[in-house]
Write a structure and sequence with these properties.
The structure holds two protein chains of two kinds.
Chain A (H helix, E strand, L loop, with lengths): L7 H14 L14 E5 L2 E6 L4 E8 L2 E8 L9 E6 L4 E12 L4 E10 L4 E12 L4 E10 L5 E11 L4 E10 L4 E10 L4 E10 L4 E10 L5 E10 L4 E10 L5 E10 L4 E10 L5 E9 L3 H8 L5 H13 L1
Parallel strand pairs in A: 1-5, 4-6, 5-7, 6-8, 7-9, 8-10, 9-11, 10-12, 11-13, 12-14, 13-15, 14-16, 15-17, 16-18, 17-19
Antiparallel strand pairs in A: 1-2, 3-4
Helix pairs in contact in A: 2-3
Chain B lengths: L4 E12 L2 E12 L3 E5 L6 H9 L8 E6 L2 E2 L5 H6 L2 E4 L11 H8 L8 H10 L4 H4 L10 H15 L3 E5 L10 H13 L3 E5 L3 H5 L3 E6 L2 E6 L1 H4 L1 H5 L6 H7 L2
Parallel strand pairs in B: 3-8, 3-9, 6-7, 7-8
Antiparallel strand pairs in B: 1-2, 1-4, 4-5, 9-10
Helix pairs in contact in B: 3-6, 4-6
Bound molecules: adenosine-5'-triphosphate and magnesium ion.
Adenosine-5'-triphosphate binds next to strand 2 and helix 1 of chain B.
Chain lengths: ~325, ~250
């Protein structure tokens, strides 16, 4: 049935190792008081739920189905750890995830996605996130890819934030080659909702980066920031589209994109802001350019080689 | 005689965008010598500093630069830095994301090459609280004066053989002039030669030697007292008073 035939405990150990190399602490994946989930390919290797967290899951040949619910009024003390990976050179991972933060609930999720040996790996994530009244959900996803490229990462998510809800998300892909990234997030923000979308990506070789983030400020006083930092070198291409629409009084949105280009790389930034309520306000700024020469010269004057200086500056920007 | 000098600049000429910015500069700096370069705005002082550091676009069309008897005229910035030359900019760069800790570590040979205590000490030396500044970004959030101080701290941690300081006093309150003089003397004590570009008589007076630069040339070198006329007469490039200063 399962695509990957490995002894589960050995596979878990391999995933834990990859998790560690991607910056995670594997011991949390075995802690009783930490909710966690480890998925290798389309196979669930381990799952743990703690008080206030309901984790339903099913793995089928075509993908993994996850339903994560944070019960009403619960503040989950430890972050929930998710680990997704494909260890072989080839493979397909399809994650279908629904996350629900019930009224007044609060949770932080930390996801690590690791494809260390990829030559042809496809990782698809279809997400649906509902943040109910006054609930808060933080979701940070960090990717760790191998040096060969050959990964296709296609995350899509629809997020609904109800009155007074808060949603913070960060997507980081700065180590290893990107391959293809096609990210598409869409947020519907209700009254007094707060939403922050962050993306940091470093593309090299012939990587292709497509980031689409859309926020619809539908409720009065809803607030959002879309912030993306993209660095590309060699022949990589990147296109960022940040959409924010203000449809209600006192809605405030901001789109902020900085792209740094080196070599033959090509970057494009498209902020689309729209307001149809006279009391709403949406602003944007986008900057595309090469690495600041004075910064490079300064670090070289401290002893770095030119490429090291550029790297330090880009890493700083993406930190 | 070359051995006496750590830096020896001979007949440097530099043109940029069709304009002759340096018109035959001669300059020699001894080991552990504090040498100040003074002169009016636009004289070419910063231009000379960039050329000595090897900044792109500041390569001379004539003349030579020797450092420890090695011809470094065509060296890159990194090659010069690796031999112990460094520069503190008149207007320091801003870095988004790079913390003071990162920045100072880079100068000290890379993260982990130097203890956090050393970095903290360098910040104390420039009168910045380590607790407050060590993990802050070297970015817009810092004022001009704070960035200048961090620039100085970075020079201190680097322990260069030759520190080129382009107006370390600018943007810093007059009260701190004494501190800057003390820092420069500290560099000397720790084995650095210092080339300091300044508009302040106090800094020039605390130097071992001073040179007056006018209109792309060094018109006079001597003891600080010998060039102190400049501060009194406020000479314009090559006007009547300057000829006075040129001597014969
Ligand atoms: N790229 C360039 N092309 C032409 N002229 C330039 C260029 N860069 C600088 N200059 C000119 O070179 C001259 C010397 O400038 P420099 O910055 O070296 O002066 P400075 O002595 O450091 O002055 P200050 O005391 O104001 O710092 C100035 O007249 C300046 O306008
Ligand atoms: Mg200057």
């Amino acid at each position: 049935m399962d695509v990957i035939k490995l002894d589960t405990s050995a596979e878990f150990a391999a995933m834990a190792d990859a998790y560690e190399r991607s910056g995670g602490d594997p011991s949390v994946l075995k802690m009783a008081d930490v909710s966690s989930l480890v998925v290798s390919g389309n196979k669930i290797l381990s799952a743990n739920q703690t008080e206030g967290v309901v984790l339903e899951k099913e793995s089928t040949e075509s993908g993994v189905y996850i339903m994560l619910t944070i019960k009403k009024g619960y503040t989950i003390p430890n972050p929930v750890h998710l680990c997704f990976g494909v260890l072989p050179k080839e493979g397909l991972q399809q994650i279908n995830v629904t996350m629900i933060a019930e009224e007044d609930a609060s949770v932080e999720l930390i996801a690590h996605c690791t494809f260390p040996n990829s030559e042809h790996v496809v990782h698809k994530m279809d997400g649906k996130i509902i943040i109910h009244k006054n609930a808060s959900l933080t979701y940070n996803e960090t990717h760790f890819h191998g040096k060969k490229g050959g990964v296709e990462v296609i995350p899509q998510a629809k997020i609904t934030i109800e009155e007074g809800g808060r949603y913070y998300t960060g997507f980081t892909l700065i180590s290893g080659r990107v391959g293809l990234l096609d990210l598409d997030y869409e947020v519907d923000a209700g009254k007094d909702a707060i939403c922050e979308l962050n993306a940091k990506v470093y593309g090299k070789g012939d990587d292709k980066i497509l980031i689409k983030e859309k926020v619809f400020l539908n409720g009065e006083n809803a607030r959002s920031v879309i912030k993306s930092r993209v660095a590309i070198s060699d022949n990589a291409v990147a296109e960022f589209t940040g959409v924010t629409e203000g449809h209600a009084p006192y809605a405030r949105g901001h789109v902020d994109c900085v792209e740094v280009v080196q070599g033959n790389a090509i970057a494009k930034a498209v902020p689309i802001v729209m307001v149809d309520d006279p009391l709403a306000k949406v602003t944007h700024e986008a900057a595309i350019g090469s690495v600041d020469k004075k910064q490079v010269d300064t670090l070289m004057a401290r002893g770095l080689e030119e490429n090291e200086a550029v790297d330090a500056i880009v890493k700083g920007m993406l930190k | 005689m070359g051995g006496v000098y750590i830096l020896s600049v001979k007949n440097i000429k530099l043109k940029r965008d069709g304009k002759e910015l340096l018109r035959g500069v001669d300059l020699e700096i001894g080991e552990c010598e504090i040498h100040s370069v003074i002169g009016p705005n636009g004289a070419g002082k910063s231009t000379l500093a960039y050329l000595l550091m090897g900044i792109g676009g500041y390569s001379p069309k004539e003349g030579s630069v020797h450092f420890n008897e090695e011809d470094i005229t065509q060296f890159t910035i990194t090659q010069r830095a690796k031999r112990g030359i460094t520069l503190a900019w008149q207007e320091p760069a801003r870095f988004e994301g790079l913390t003071v800790y990162d920045y100072l570590s880079i100068g000290a040979g890379g993260t982990g090459k130097v203890s956090e205590n050393t970095l903290r000490h360098a910040l104390e030396m420039v009168d910045l609280s380590p607790d407050k500044y060590l993990h802050r970004e070297v970015s817009e959030a810092l004022s001009g004066g704070e960035r200048k101080r961090i620039e100085m701290a970075s020079i201190l941690t680097m322990k260069p053989k030759l520190a080129i300081l382009d107006e370390p006093d600018s943007g810093i309150d007059v009260v701190s002039l004494k501190e800057i003089v003390a820092l420069i003397q500290d560099l000397k004590k720790n084995g650095s030669s210092v080339l300091v570009i300044t508009h302040r008589e106090e800094i020039a007076a605390a130097s071992d030697k001073a040179s007056l630069m006018c209109d792309g040339m060094i018109v006079k070198t001597g003891s600080p007292a010998e060039i102190s006329d400049f501060f009194i007469k406020k000479c314009k490039p090559c006007d009547v008073e300057t000829h006075d200063l040129k001597g014969d």
